[in-house]
Amino acid sequence: MKKFLYASLIAATLTGCSAAPKHGQLSYGAYPPVNLPKQAAQEYLKANLMDYNSAIITYGGHPSRGYLHSPIFGTQAVGYHYYVSVNAKNAYGAYTGARDYVFVFRGKELSALVAPKVTSSGLRQRVIFDHTNGGKRTQ
Description:
The chain is 19% helix and 37% strand.
């Protein structure tokens, strides 16, 4: 039984160690229009926060090239990443602490969104929408 556990642990460890592609191999798409990332972030947050007006939102500067890979979901997000930090109120009216969101753009298109999800085991990132993977939606 111990051999099986050790073999499983080693296999799981090695599976997550795949190397990221080199920058020359990636296609980031066109740079998004100047106001689009902030507008898209505002629209998403207005629709998904309990109390948008009380939220403390810190918008990132300019979108930058980026690559995200989620071995758990089997998805990758290549494009221009726009980072947003949000400290919003929960149902009890208390601030929850800053949570980071990553909006991934390819030209004028929002291709992926990585948002926080709080579970009983702690905070985990999740891919909400990944257009590059056939519109896969993972919760």
